[in-house]
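This protein record is not my work; I was only asked to verify it. The record follows directly below this note.
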Amino acid sequence: MSAATLLTLRSLSCGYGNQRIVQELGLHLRAGDIGCLLGPSGCGKTTTLRAIAGFEPLLSGEIELAGEVISRPGFTLAPERRRIGMVFQDYALFPHLTVEENVAFGIRKLPEKGRIAAELLALVKLERLAQRYPHELSGGQQQRVALARALAPSPQLLLLDEPFSNLDVELRRALSQEVRDILKARGTSAILVTHDQEEAFAVSDQVGVFNQGYLQQWDTPFNLYHEPATPFVASFVGQGYFIRGTLRAPDTVETGLGQLTGNRAYPFAPGSHVDVLLRPDDIVPAPDSALRALVTHKTFFGASTLYRLTLPTGEHLESLFPSHADHSVGSHVGIRVAADHLVVFPAEPATGVQRSA
């Protein structure tokens, strides 16, 4: 049995004045799930988060939380009445309060505030720092305090606005996984805003990719990578290149890599020009292959090496080889396609420039 829907956005549009930042947005978040709004700067993801929190009015559409409409044009339920918690980018801790007092601030009128604060500090592994002040903590510790404070009132939904952007790369990776574990342990639903896809994939059950105010796709991280709905999603998520092809049969495309057969029929007429998405893990070394590619660049990752390759047609690809298969720049390597499916889009008008994914 699937989990009930907690949050629904229906045909949501919002912005400032007459300028629409977000347009016709629709999505559902299930209870207990962690969602993410992902996209480049200025795409509308933070505006959407602020609208959910109650900080921005709607121009059209509505927001429903736990079966109750909390926003529509002309009506906005006050933020403090929404049972929504918020973790800000700059943590927004009170410098004159101890860690324990910060965590208990939103529940300071409850007689059990001490017990709740102690439980949450144990959950975020800061129980020994309860009497310290924010300036005595590291950035990661401050973020944990901000998370515990937001969880203290037991919100129905937690919103996180680029919560890891002020941390270094390694700490971001560790803390993002830790935050996911904490939210899952409490069964707390959440929506995260980020422009970092690695962070989005590590934390989230569902990810929405935004572009210029429109939601391009709301899906699992796996589907965003392997089944992108639009060329923008394909190029924004992960690495890869598009190569030009011609549809020879409903499931077969002629390309510079030879004939490639997918696992489905594509809705284009035979003879149509198409663009085929190929990820680095779709291209594998094949020493005996007649198809040879020129190595133009290599990046060593330890367990694997990422090679940038040029086909005889002049088209470019990237491929991940096991690191012990070492090839120098300027050499030629045998390759083949090892994709169990193909992602195919109608070809863009010829520009002389190959699209990079």
